[in-house]
Amino acid sequence: MQIYTHPLCRIQGLNFPPPENPERFGELEELLQGAIRAVPRRKPVDARIMHLIRNTHAYLERLRVEGEGVEAIDDDIENPAETFIDMESYETAVAGVATSIIAAENAGFALVRPPGHHAHRDYTHGYCLLNNMALATKALVQRGERVLVFDMDVHHGCGTEEILSTVENATMVSFYQADIWPGETHYSDAQNSIRVPIEGDVDDALYAQHIDRYLVPALQRFQPTVVGISLGLDTFRDEIFGWKLTEETICNVKNLLANQRYFGILEGGYEPSSVFYGVRAFAR
Fold first, then answer.
1. CA-based angle 22:24:28, to the nearest 5?
2. pLDDT tens digit sequence for 53-72
3. Which end of the chain has the smaller Cβ count within 10 Å, N or C?
């Protein structure tokens, strides 16, 4: 599988506090060297993509920062500020969306950061700027595809759920850890979304059981022409959330989709080793 990326993903947020900063990509040189730069830097992004972004996110212009300062953009009063922007954020976010759409159209993997699945229509939080997966899905639907999104992040993709809730020919299945951020106030109760909260420590074997119980029937019912994987690697054993997933789970998902066209977009995952091993397993 071809990897698509953009150099701004290694630059934006150099002064951000961890965990969401370029240090996440600290072990990816090998993979980045073989990646395709999907869109050129300092050149306008395709007009159709900009139109799609503006019709999806009301706060796009809020991502612009003048000068070298760092600002918080999340307005989540339940949590301290954790989602930051700098002078590179607007261009990085737009490039991340364009990269994700190109990866989706070519059945590839978008190696982008910051993540996107907590970005809603009117606001964002959870380290995210623009919702790469939701926008890539909408772009595919406009081309006549039926898209099933499988969100594998340890946190529920609340922004993706909201944005896709009104999109025909799109559905979402989200596996995530029960009773952690984000709170229920950020869920939209979308009729086309299947939420699967999982309690306790989760290993490859338990995850496989949930795939058989929830994902396989969803694929059979919906009959997608394309599957989009929101690849959150904060589920891996070296991360802080207690799950113990490995490359085995990623291989299981790929085997399930062996006869299905699919693409992937990076979401969470903050230990450099998790990001490296997870992305390598997905793309190879």
1. 95
2. 999 999 999 999 998 899 99
3. C
